[in-house]
Amino acid sequence: MFIGRDKELSFLNEKYAENSGNFILIYGRRRIGKTALVNRFIADKKAVYLLATLEERNQIIMRFSLQISQFFNDQLMLENPFSD
Fold it and tell me: Which of 27, 35, 44, 70 is 20 to 30 A (C-alpha) from 8?
């Protein structure tokens, strides 16, 4: 269920439409729909989504490299992942 996030979705879509780069931090208490908001926002867009976890740093970097290489269909990146 996705209720009451029209204002936030509108803001994200406005920033997405701008012809500039943006860094938008989404924060809040647990279990209030932050992940659902992001997933709804990127549902119709080409996007890379990386959920921060408590994995080891190297595992996160490897997972991110894999996602980026798949997103761009880049065999070179797949063979040479990020090191840090």
Answer: 70
